[in-house]
Hints:
Layout: H1 21-27, H2 30-33, H3 37-53, H4 59-78, H5 90-102, H6 115-151, E1 156-161, E2 164-170, H7 171-196, E3 198-199, H8 215-221, E4 226-227, H9 231-236, H10 239-266, E5 273-274, H11 293-316, H12 330-354, E6 356-357, H13 359-367, H14 373-384, H15 388-405, H16 414-420, H17 434-440, H18 449-464
Arginine (ARG) is lined by residues 29, 33, 89, 115-116, 119, 323, 325, 327-328.
Amino acid sequence: MSNKKKSNKMWGGRFSEKSTDLLTKINSSIDIDKRLAFEDILGSKAHVEMLAKTGIITKKTKNEILYGLKKIEKELISGDFIFNSGLEDIHMNIEARLGEIIGPEAGRIHTARSRNDQVVTDFRLWIRKAIEEIEAELSKLQVSFLKKAEKNIEIVSPGYTHLQVAQPVRFSHHLLAYIEMFGRDLERFKQTKERLNECPLGAAALAGTSFPIDRFHTAKSLGFRYPMRNSMDAVSDRDFVLEFMSDSAISMVHFSRLAEEFILWGSVEFDFISLPDSLVTGSSIMPQKKNPDAAELIRAKTGRVNGALLSLLTVMKGLPLAYAKDMQEDKEAVFDVFDTLILVIKISQELIENMKIKKENMYNAASNGFSTATDLADWFVRDLGIPFRDAHSLTGKIVEIAAKKNIKLNELNLSDLTKVEPKINKNVFKILSPEKSIESKNSFGGTALREIKRQIRFWKRKLNA
Ligand code: ARG
């Protein structure tokens, strides 16, 4: 695979000098895009089949090329394939190797094709497969959340707004909220996959080709819906990359919020959960520490994914049609985003499956902070016919009394209450416990048992399907 010729043998026909080392260095993408090797071979096979079918190359040449590509595939799998940075990228590495295996007929593989349509075809294939993997991992994660929610359906926890105790909820309600978030992530990825599933191959450099190719044939054989309608758009579009990265960034934001909750819940101050030693780390100086590094890194890696999205948005924003080499930068960002997201999904699953819930602590926190004050206000409205705004104000006064006495609302005497509003009767105590509060929230999507069970049934059906 040596490249002893003066200039690049793939494109250097008119060149009399070879590239400087620095040009080779900045131009070469093989260390990154070697990850497209199998997609590149897939695309080449489809292209060559089509070239033979349309009579552009002979059947004999097609068979030779397919034989060579098979051999290269084997070398890639066994690790014997030697990548050469002098050959820039994966496309030229594979074509050059094909030449070594079958001789000059290899050069016919690039008839009616350019690296511009080739790379973007490979990349669509790669991202399509990547999305399938992400979908599978996200679904598995949802199942873990669902099992945890079902198993802990009776656990009462504080629901927060502003990170201040707001109202008691079932802890399973909280977990089910994440299932919704990951469900939307899944949908976004699915839609991206649908939209990207059109084939750029045959657009050639940008203008199309004078050879009688059959773009519908290659599109179909690669599992794409249609060939892309406009050859210029086909080679210059990277929307699908940006969408993939946006989907990933949004999903990472969900993971980051989850990670933040893990960190809070595991702190001495909250003490809602504990993680097994296998999922925490120690401190080199403070012997007592068990640190939630995994969650912290999930939170941090969100910055990395957001950054990758922003970097490619920035790369694309000034590019005139059609192809420009700037676009070569898209792959490193995408591969990193994919690796990061998969790692984060998998470790989040380990965290959720292995966390131990400290239900007494959750319950205590749920009964503090006057968490049933809204229930009291609602009782005024429902039982005493008081308008909500007045009920809110009366309840505020009662909360203030309890706060001064440093007791919970259900620990107040009836006489404390009737001082504020003489019509209050002892029935009020029936609604002031966290359990009562929860069960009363039976509106669709609320935290009452019936509604949580409805949500669980929904996701069971959806995830089995
Ligand atoms: N390695 C290139 C990329 O990733 C392939 C396309 C090169 N096209 C070109 N006209 N130089 O974008």
